[in-house]
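Journal club side-thread
Mid-discussion, someone asked how the predicted structure for our own chain would compare to the paper's figures. Pasting it here so we can look after the session.
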Amino acid sequence: MRYQPEPEHKFTFGLWTVGNPGRDPFGEAVRPVLSPVEIVHLLAEVGAYGVNLHDNDLVPIDATASERDRIVRDFKNALKETGLVVPMATTNLFGDPIFKDGAFTSNDARVRAYALQKTMQAIDLGVELGAQTYVFWGGREGTETDAGKNPLDAVKRMREAMNFLCEYVKSQQYDLKFALEAKPNEPRGDIFLATTGHMLAFIETLDHADMVGVNPEMAHEHMAGLNFLHNIAQAWDAGKLFHIDLNDQNFARYDQDFRFGSHNYKQAFFLVKFLEDVGYAGSRHFDAHAYRSEDVDGVKDFARGCMRTYLILKDKAAKYKADAEIQALLKEIHAEHSEASSLLGVFDPQKADTLKKHPFDRKAISEVGLKYEKLDQLVFDLLMGIR
């Protein structure tokens, strides 16, 4: 059957995604809380490849050592029974009251030290479960008032923490890389390192920048009013696209975490096309939640929908490449002018001298129509299924 997920697609969900009981700031839970073992079996039923987790999604923050061992043992057994894997793990450094003013950027050294302790233990757990990517989302690393925290101190503290944890991973000889996830706001008024571009610049200041990449999330970039595809392309070009979070989001709203492709069809299409064109080999992780209107069966519909939408758009991307009219138009649009092309590229003095003297007919060049309207309509027709 078409559009059915296979392990090769590497579709993953977090325990916190399909396990979300529908609680929000204005209403209580509408679905039963599922155990990690139940979630693993639910994901296996809908055809997912893997399951990702925060440390406390699996092991409660106040669990005893014996409780921790039992929970992890049961979870491993569920993975073995279903064949699901754990490609990515992360730490919850935002839920407990101790992190009310951040974790790595807190003004309180005790909080910063506890955050490092908690993260090292969570890294150990992630590696034990097979994770090779470790994500950092600094949900509380921000401010409501800039009077309360110096942004220079905050970035220095974040750098110190990442350098420490990179050294920890190296000292343990773990096969693990870090991926930093940006978000502009919520739950803090403003969050430090707010976009993927901020994260890419920050990474270059680290002692072990080669170990650290990014985990861009579609909804987070849309919250900032940005073009997600452009940020993904920049991360890919930098060799830093270590992981990706797929969902959907109306621009300039709170973090909605809608089912992938549920709102912005065209943006989702070009994103899928890009990932497939460049050969992105990592997980396609769906960091999204079912609507609060749904029961457990609705959660399954949501998970199946995320994967099905990706596969439909993957199919559309293949049709885009095979469409003779679209490809002919692209060839025309992207046609190079050999005389001008010879003046571009790597600098040399003779080329620069020739370029300075070259006559350009600005009026003639500016009068050429680019046919983007026609191309964009062809894309719409393709997505609507009439091509």
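Post-session note: Residues 7-321 form a domain with the TIM Barrel fold (CATH 3.20.20.150).
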